[in-house]
């Protein structure tokens, strides 16, 4: 992430890390279980990071299946990918994942992005449900041989057209 933000990876044009935070007072029952490094004070209020994702506008993704939309000249500049989407295990199924994905769509629109993608493990049903609820649809899947070659779980690629595009 640091390399992408610093511009050291030329295939990434714009990168943002979007965080979800809550006041510690709202989650006192699980606050001790949450990571100490994720706690901070903002305007005198103790808070904790409970979810995060990276939004990446990039020209290419090495070793990844990539999106096909939009097509034509300049299409690479209007495409972005979500990555590293996570919510604290203690707070799963509370709508936080949905909210940070929704926020990422707004940020992407502000960048002029028309097509947003996310890779998700083929067998990660909770994540697939989150993205489908958020409006993503299936576009492509990674061949099993490719996943084996890269020594990782097989993944699928999901897509959503952001408002203002002809594909909606």
What is the tally of beta strands? 7
**Beta fraction:** 25-35%
> Span from first to last CA?
31 Å
- What is Rg? 17 Å
On the 0 to 100 scale, the average pLDDT is: 81
User: What is the overall silhouette?
Assistant: globular
> Which structural class is indicated by helix and strand composition?
alpha+beta
What share of residues is helical? 10-25%
The secondary-structure element order is HEEEEHEHEHE
State the low-pLDDT regions, or none: 1-8
Total number of helices:
4
Strand count, sense and barrel status of the largest sheet are: 7 strands, mixed
Q: How do the strands and helices of this protein lay out in sequence?
A:
Elements: H1 2-5, E1 12-23, E2 39-42, E3 45-58, E4 79-87, H2 96-110, E5 115-121, H3 125-133, E6 137-141, H4 144-149, E7 155-161
Parallel strand pairs: 4-5
Antiparallel strand pairs: 1-3, 2-3, 3-4, 5-7, 6-7
């Amino acid at each position: 992430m640091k390399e992408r933000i610093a511009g050291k990876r030329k295939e990434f044009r714009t990168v943002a890390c979007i965080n979800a935070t809550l006041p510690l007072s709202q989650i006192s029952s699980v606050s001790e279980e949450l990571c100490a490094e994720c706690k901070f004070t903002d305007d005198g209020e103790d808070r904790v990071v409970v979810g995060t994702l990276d939004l990446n506008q990039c020209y290419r993704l090495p070793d990844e299946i990539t999106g096909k939309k939009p097509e034509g000249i300049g299409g690479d500049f209007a495409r972005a990918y979500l990555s590293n989407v996570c919510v604290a295990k203690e707070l799963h199924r509370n709508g936080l994942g949905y909210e940070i994905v929704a926020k990422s769509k707004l940020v992407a629109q502000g960048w002029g992005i028309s097509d947003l993608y996310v890779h998700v493990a083929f067998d990660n049903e909770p994540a697939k449900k989150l993205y489908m609820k958020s409006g993503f649809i299936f576009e492509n899947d990674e061949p099993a041989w490719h996943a084996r070659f890269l020594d990782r779980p097989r993944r699928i690629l999901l897509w959503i057209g952001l408002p203002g595009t002809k594909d909606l």
